[in-house]
Amino acid sequence: MIKQVLLLALPLLAAYNFATAQKSFKKSLSGITRVEIHSETSIELSKSSGNELVLAPNGLSDKEDEKASGLKPIYPGGTDNTGIGFKMEQKGATLILTDLQAHFNRSGLVIQLPSTVSLMLDCGSLGNAVINGWTAELEIKTNVGEINLVNVTGPITAHSSTGTIKVNFSQVNQTAPISIASSTGDIDVTLPESANASVELKSVIGGVFSAFDLVPARQDGLKPISGHKSIEGKINNGGVKISLRASTGNIYLRKK
C-alpha cells in the first residue's frame, strides 16, 4: 500500500517542484527526435503531454547571490544560453543540454519531456535519477547515484558503477533489446506477468533471484549449477532480449 502511494505521489511531487522553482527553461521540440542531458546533480523526470522541454532547478536550488547583482555569471564549460546555467546546442535532430554548474551548486533538477523523443540522461558522478511514465527509448547512466525507473516500457540501456538500479515496467516494448547493468549495486526489476521476454541474468559474485521459472529441469535429473555463467530463460515463450548484469550486487527479477 505504501509503495502504491509513493508511485502515485511522484507526478504530484514533480508538479510541486515546478511550482516552487525560481525559474525554468522551455524549448520547443519541433524537429527534435533525441534529447541529451548532461548534469552532475540528481534529476526527476516525468512525461509531459505537450511538445516542449521544460527544465527547472528544484525549489531549493540556485538562490540569488545579492553580491552578483548586475553581473553576468561565466563558466569554464561554455556560455549559458538558457538562463539557468546550461549550455544548449542542436546537432541535426538532436538537442544537447550541458549543465555548466558544479554538483555542489545544485540541489536537483526537475524535467518534463514528451516521450515522443528518445532520451539520453547522464547524472554524472553523484546524481540520482528518478523517471516516471517514460515510454520511449531511454539511455541513462550514473556513477554513484541510484537509478529508479517507474512505469516504463523500454527500450532501455541503464548503467551505474556503484548505484542500485530499480526498474518497474508497465509493459515491455518489443522493438529493441533492454540492457541494465551495475558494477557493485543491486539490480531490481519488475515485469508484468504477461510480458514476453528472453532474459539473460548474470552476477559474478552476487546472487540471482527470480519470480519467473527460467531454468528448465534437466532430463538426466541433475541440478543445473550456474557458477559464473549466465542464466538464460524465456518468459511466455520469449520475446525481446532483457539483459541484467551485476558484478558484485544481487539481481532480483519480480513479476506483477
Which runs of at least 5 residues are low in confidence (pLDDT < 50)? 2-21
Q: Alpha-carbon distance between the termini?
A: 14 Å
The total domain count is 2
What structural category characterises the helix and strand content? Answer: mainly beta
Please state the average pLDDT score: 87
Approximate strand percentage? 35-45%
What characterizes the major β-sheet?
A: 10 strands, mixed
- Percent helix, as a range, is under 10%
Q: In order across it, which strands form the biggest sheet?
A: 1-4-7-3-9-11-13-15-20-17
Radius of gyration computed on alpha carbons: 20 Å
Key terms:
256 residues; mainly beta; 2 domains; 10-stranded mixed β-sheet; 1 helix; 20 strands; 7% helix; elongated
Layout of secondary structure:
Elements: H1 2-20, E1 25-28, E2 34-38, E3 43-47, E4 52-57, E5 86-91, E6 94-99, E7 109-113, E8 118-122, E9 129-132, E10 138-142, E11 147-152, E12 156-160, E13 165-169, E14 178-182, E15 187-191, E16 197-203, E17 208-210, E18 231-235, E19 240-246, E20 251-255
Summary of the model, kept short:
The chain has one helix at 2-20, and strands at 25-28, 34-38, 43-47, 52-57, 86-91, 94-99, 109-113, 118-122, 129-132, 138-142, 147-152, 156-160, 165-169, 178-182, 187-191, 197-203, 208-210, 231-235, 240-246, 251-255.
Explain this structure.
It is a single chain. By secondary structure, the protein is mainly beta. The protein folds into 2 domains: 1-61 and 76-127, no CATH class; 153-218 and 226-256, no CATH class. It contains 1 helix and 20 strands. It has one helix at 2-20; strands at residues 25-28, 34-38, 43-47, 52-57, 86-91, 94-99, 109-113, 118-122, 129-132, 138-142, 147-152, 156-160, 165-169, 178-182, 187-191, 197-203, 208-210, 231-235, 240-246, 251-255. The strands form 2 sheets. The protein has a 10-stranded mixed sheet with strand order 1-4-7-3-9-11-13-15-20-17, covered by helices on one side. It has a 10-stranded mixed sheet with strand order 5-6-2-8-10-12-14-19-16-18, with no helix packed on it. A hairpin with a 2-residue loop joins β5 and β6 (94-99). The longest helix has 19 residues, at 2-20. It is elongated, with a radius of gyration of 20 Å.
